[in-house]
Amino acid sequence: MAEVTMDKIVSLCKRRGFIFQSSEIYGGLNGAYDYGPLGVQLKNNIRDFWWKEMTQIHDDIVGLDASILMHPRVWEASGHVSNFSDPMVDCKQCKSRFRADQIDLKGACPTCGTKDSFTEPRNFNLMFATHIGANADASSTIYLRPETAQGIYVDFKNVVSSSRVKIPFGIAQVGKSFRNEITTKNFIFRSCEFEQMEMQWFCKPGTDEKWFSYWREQRMAFYHKMGIKPQSLRWHQHGPDELAFYAKDAYDIQFLFPMGWQELEGVHSRTDYDLTQHQTFSGKEMTYLDPESNERYIPYVVETSAGLTRNVLMALGDAYDEEELEGGDVRTVLHFHPSLAPVTVAVLPLVKKDGIAEFASKLEHELRDDFSTFYDVSGAIGRRYRRMDEIGTPYCVTVDYQSLEDQTVTLRLRDSMEQVRVAITDLVATIKKATKEYKRVER
């Protein structure tokens, strides 16, 4: 297999309409990206895959969509106002900015090479501040949320009273977060605007270790279910220097990105810190009355927090391959799980004439009820197969003269390039069965 580099992924994303740099015609904006037609579908498919896993399969998890804008006291309670900052230094010579803990303050500037040119470290808050209302003063300052978890915590009592849930239970949410990152790098891995998929699991104190182990197991199994190569996933436990002061234990699921092993998702044991803080700052009781024991307590929380945008980059990096075929030809292919692929089925008429194109177009419209489809009539059939391989389409359906005679089509499988003849009446069932039984095959 060819080496998967970030340059190759970025080039493919631009060329095929997965991801573009934001405001590119104006020179772009660092740390911001636009998801094109294929990219937004891939992102939505990953989101839906996660949402189904967390809320549909688990009957003890409910959903939430909290507002991006929240009362500023939320962020005081959470510690973000006082603690969510990085010590930064600037080079006096070239004005480059760096995190103070990532460079030698007595050494040379990594950008211009000037020695002993750094300013004194100063804290830089990572939250984006804005104003609400007509007057832009200190009293109107609010923040774009830097994480989605706090919306779940402040709505904890509302969910309990309205949903008839009983501990243990979870609240899941997918949404955008914003961080004023000084150093944005590695494409969409670290950006100022990103999306998270989080679930906060509320449990009785004393049972948290059991649930922490359970959710670690569940979350790793999720990526295997997505078809991600197991050898590209690993656990990293937070050491004493990494562990947040309120956390009892924390593990990251790391993925082998093109730039090396990096965090994909965190599973954290947060104790009762968050609900206790919001009880203190709001003056509202955040305890839970256990109907079985009649005890009243503040629940402990086990958090699973995954980056949706990082999941997109993971899916692209994991799926990307360049395969050398007979004759020296090379095909670029994305081995997406069929449930994630932006296009599930491409319908390709062999020729445009003799009613074949019309037959194929009608079939493609019929398949839309069950799959994400694409109709392509342009170019040689082999070239169209390559275009579909490059965007990760798992199934191609070719309509030819025989199709008009006996109502059968050729079903071509992306990974193996195998071609089988299938009756049109069996086509939907055949594709669904192949998707359900999908196992990644690389040539």
Keywords for this entry:
443 residues, alpha+beta, BirA Bifunctional Protein, domain 2, Rossmann fold, seven-stranded mixed β-sheet, five-stranded mixed β-sheet, 13 helices, 23 strands, 31% helix, globular, Glycine--tRNA ligase, ATP binding
Determine the number of helices (DSSP H or I, runs of at least 4 residues): 13
Which strand order spans the largest sheet, edge to edge or round the barrel? 3-9-10-16-13-12-11
CATH class of the largest domain: Alpha Beta
How many structurally independent domains? Answer: 3
Strand fraction: 25-35%
CATH architect. name of the largest domain: 2-Layer Sandwich
| Biggest sheet layout | 7 strands, mixed
CATH-level-4 superfamily name of the largest domain: Bira Bifunctional Protein, Domain 2
Domain Aminoacyl-transfer RNA synthetases class-II family profile: 7-349
Function: Catalyzes the attachment of glycine to tRNA(Gly).
Enzyme class: ligase
Binding site for substrate: 99, 147, 194-198, 303-307
